[in-house]
Amino acid sequence: MRAKTPRSGPPVTAKTGPVNIKDVLSTALHSLGFSARLKEYSIIERWPACVGEAVAKRCAPVRLVEGVLYCTVVSPAWITELGYQKKDIACRLNRELGEPLVKDIIFRLGHVEPCARPPARKARPSHEVRGAELLEIERTASVIKDDELREAVKRAMVKSREEGE
Fold this sequence. Notes:
Blueprint: E1 12-13, E2 17-18, H1 21-31, H2 34-51, H3 53-58, E3 59-65, E4 68-73, H4 76-97, E5 104-109, H5 132-141, H6 147-162
Parallel strand pairs: 4-5
Antiparallel strand pairs: 1-2, 3-4
């Protein structure tokens, strides 16, 4: 009896054939609890655009738990004012996010920091990828059957080499 050799290539399931990487990542992110954190980050990122600069300076989202968005507010007066606006704020957030994530908002007195933004990447000296490097990238990516994925991988490889990583 011959020993089976490991199969190379994309994962295959018995019923469906090759698995889409998007589905694999989505399932993995959800099972690891990252999907909820990504939704929270989306709310924090879009908060100033949805509520305006004046409110964003005085109120900040902290956590989204089962559809309830918890926010800290600088004063009781602002808590009262925002209480009147919370349905409108939730509607604007949901419209901006493209799904009904925020069902209710609870405002609590606390310290408000400006909405966190991801730190900007430091510019690195770059070089243009050409010649042998481009041929190597083409050769490496050529084994990928899916056109869209192959092009995405090539773009990522070019960018990585341009940034010197």
